[in-house]
Design goal:
Layout: E1 2-8, H1 13-22, E2 29-35, E3 42-46, E4 49-53, E5 56-65, H2 70-81, E6 89-95
Antiparallel strand pairs: 1-5, 1-6, 2-5, 3-4
Length: about 110
């Protein structure tokens, strides 16, 4: 099993969710986060004063999937989240050793 952490632009969330739904992935956790990479933030003007916004708003999607769903999932996220501009985001893939469903006691693939 794999865990995907995808950090994307907030306005792309609906497109990514729909793309994942189209390949049969319906469960995910979404968190509003802030961060920066090569974008390095930007400057804004507020009441005549200029200030630097270092951390930009992003959305983090967490998904746990079976191994065979990995490549379709990565393709769906990257195609739906891509704008072609800096700051489109990143996808991180890690191994998952065990999963437990608290309500039923199911484990691993049956708990996904």
């Amino acid at each position: 099993m794999k865990k995907i952490d995808a950090v994307i632009k907030p306005f792309k969330l609906d497109d990514v969710r729909e793309a994942l739904s189209n390949i049969g992935i319906t469960g995910m956790t979404v968190t509003e986060v802030k961060g920066f990479g090569r974008q390095k933030g930007h400057t804004e003007l507020y009441r005549g004063a200029e200030y630097v916004v270092d951390f930009l708003p992003k959305v983090k999607i967490e998904i746990v999937i079976n191994d065979e769903q990995l490549e379709p999932c990565i393709d769906a996220i990257s195609n739906a989240a891509k704008t072609g501009k800096i700051g489109d985001g990143k996808i991180f893939v890690t191994d998952v050793e065990r999963i437990f469903r608290i309500r039923t006691g199911e484990m691993n693939e049956s708990a996904v």
